[in-house]
Amino acid sequence: MSNMEGLGRAFNLIAAASGVHIPMRDISGVTFLSFLDAGTQTVTLKQSIDGASEVALTVVDKIYKAPGVGGTWTKVTQAVADNFNLTTDATNDSFVIHVGEDDLSDGYNCVEATAGTGILIAILHDLKVRRDPVNLARNVV
Predict the structure, then answer these.
(1) Which residues are within 8 A (CB) of 88 and not within 5 positions of it... i.e. 6 or more apart?
(2) Fewest CB atoms within 10 A around its CB: which of 86, 101, 105, 117?
(3) What global pTM score does this model have?
């Protein structure tokens, strides 16, 4: 594996991540990136046990928003919740939410983000096992 290649070494990616259960066993965190022109998207977070027994994931409070094309990221101030709503912000088209493996409750091993609108991408990072991209383990349940 090339030391310069990020995929498989530093991260893995799910391009269409809305509603997908992502196991946290081989990663330290997932960063969800959402985009919708005019910034009218919503997302809800859940945790599960191997994709079953879903419950709300309410510990996430590190959310950032930005205009879609090269804007400055701004921290969003909101109470800890299982959902994020950018529907009243026409300036910012993108937001980022990070979920670390320690954010899940005891016994839960998967995270799911569901976008009400917009594109939702998941960047799986801090891989515990590095592999060539063609040998990456399945990253959804």
Answers:
(1) none
(2) 105
(3) 0.88
